Amino acid sequence: xxxxxxxxxxxxxxxxxxxxxxxxxxxxxxxxxxxFVSVDASPEAPKGIFPFxxxxxxxxxxxxxxxxxxxxxxxxxDLQIEPELAVVCAIDYDASRLVSGLRPRIxxxxxxxxxxxxxxxxxxxKKNWGADSKGLADRGxxxxxxxxxxxxATLRLACFLRxxxxxxxxxxxxxxxxxxxxxxxxxxxxxxxLRLQRDEAGSPLEDVGALLAVCGYPSxxxxxxxxxxxxxxxxxxxxxxxxxxxVVAYDSEAHSPESIRSxxxxxxxxxxxxxxxxxxxxx
Length: 283
Description:
Layout: E1 3-5, H1 8-12, E2 15-20, H2 26-29, E3 48-53, E4 66-67, E5 70-71, E6 78-80, E7 83-93, E8 99-111, E9 114-116, E10 134-136, E11 139-142, E12 155-163, E13 166-175, H3 183-196, H4 208-214, E14 220-224, H5 232-236, E15 244-251, H6 257-265, E16 275-282
Parallel strand pairs: 2-14, 4-10, 5-16
Antiparallel strand pairs: 1-11, 2-3, 6-9, 7-8, 7-14, 8-10, 8-11, 12-13, 12-15, 15-16
């Protein structure tokens, strides 16, 4: 797969959403499984989608949150890395201006960094606290599909925390095949949610599709596919100022989990030649 630059100017015109509950065990580790008790979803399916960026919205979602270098410190809740793959897609609309399809263009390392706020009514309240509250690598793999047996089948995701010159494994090294929904199944399900998901009392989900109209029907969308599981260290350690969060989406035909960790320990993660690397300092 070919690595390409990701334009910050283009990202500012995108819509931004995440997928909740697309990796078995993550919600429980994050202490968020109880938020979804009222959500009607089959056991194997994700719980829903949530917005993290909607240019033109009348609230905090209008703030552009993505950075490839920094996570902004906040006292609004314990900060935790959420290592994910993100897919940048073109959006197709039908004659009624409803989403009819999503066409993948780039897949990259993503940090859906979250402020753990047990009092939040909606997921999005934990996701955007202003500039630099999200992370997307400045390079990703060019794609035109994301099928389990397609070009991205060899991708894996790793996550580390560098603190006081010590590197700790924060997320369980995982394959794309470990996602509950992926490929066309995931994209079709997201299209359905953009068309049909509503804001209901007692639900942490929102009418995300309605935000597309508020944003003027953007032509592109950034989708956080879902956070992987934490190691015991990642589950129990929150971010501090001075920390460095590192998320690596890599081709397992070119790199092994051991070689990825070795590169991070030596500080050479930016030199990996078949990886999308997101390194953010907390400040």
